[in-house]
Predict the 3D structure of the following.
Amino acid sequence: MKHPEKELSKAIDDCSKVLICIKGSPDPDAIAAAFALKILCEKHGKRARMVATEQLSLHQNKLFVRRLFLPLEFADSFNKHLDWADSYAVVDHASAEVEGISDKLPCCVHIDHHAKTQATFPISMRWCNPHVGSASTLLSVLLARGYRDLGISSDEMTRMSTALLFGIQTDTDKYALATKDDYEAIEFLSQFASAAILRKLSGVPLGRRTAARLQTAERNKKIYRGWLITNVGFVPAKCRDDIAIIADFLLRREDVTMVVVFALIRNDRKKKLTLDASVRSKDRALKLTPLIRRVAADGGGRKSKGAYQVNLDYFFDFSDMAFLWEFVERATLEKLQRTRDFTYKVRLQSVLEDAKDAAMNVITGLKNSLPAELRGPLTAGLWSSLKKAKENATSSYRKKKT
Ligand SMILES: [Mn+2]
């Protein structure tokens, strides 16, 4: 996107009250991106609310919100704000679809860095770039392009920059996965951010309960053909981030190519029971989304990180939870081992798709550089055969998937 700052002001031109939805568990990247978008909306003379439907689970994230006075609101459902808002936005999530909202309000903004998905309804500004390490990076670009003209106060600039920097830091595993664009954003934000607050946030140690769950994960781990598969049993909803933290930790420490940590997440208030798994990979050439979608429909990922959920609400009241757990544990282990067995196919597919995309880009460039009268006849044949090759690959891949 050439001028995202212009696209943004065009997109929010017709709105006056924007509901910024944080889908799923609110992590620093999503919160920072939502906060920056809220300020940008306000500087354009609009009102905006940033809302999450799940509570903060990590001590570090609570400190993050408190220390930077981030105006994050919580609601059982986004519906609560339906009467107030006249449009909505989604940041840091692959899909802009929001239950109970998408069919009632227009979507003005969707900014994300996960694997691209097809938009099924019109969105005024859709900026999904899987080549950056965080949604905060994209918001930083918007901020860098517009901050001089928008009359942002120095206090707002400090809070926003600190938040975005922390968002980038957590999503790129402390910059280990950062790309060129991320580094540019870091350089820009560092001029304004508070180093003292960042130090404080980064230095928060693992909580006692998280450390205890890490031990459980150690005890339960199984190694299968270079994959480490483990679980931490039942986990209350407010601690669900523990499984992601443990997966990150195990991937750094163990000599394996993949780590999967799963748990049964219980939300007693909402009577919800979910199998939740965090997936981490060291194999940069492997696309996690197609791999995870073979395990569960409700899942996906980006470079090296992914997750999936399976709704088990139906079993919430079952009297023998130990039996249920035993079943879930065995079935999940078996399913993941089978997934491991066909990883090479997904990996091959990932490499092939990348090569085809690269070839398509070359052809597009070639086509555009030719004079108009030569463009058609010279490239049509080549173009259509390449397109066909790509479609064939994709459809045979889909067939295999089902
Ligand atoms: Mn993110």
Observations:
- The mean pLDDT is 90.
- The first helix runs from residue 4 to 11.
- The chain has 13 helices and twelve strands.
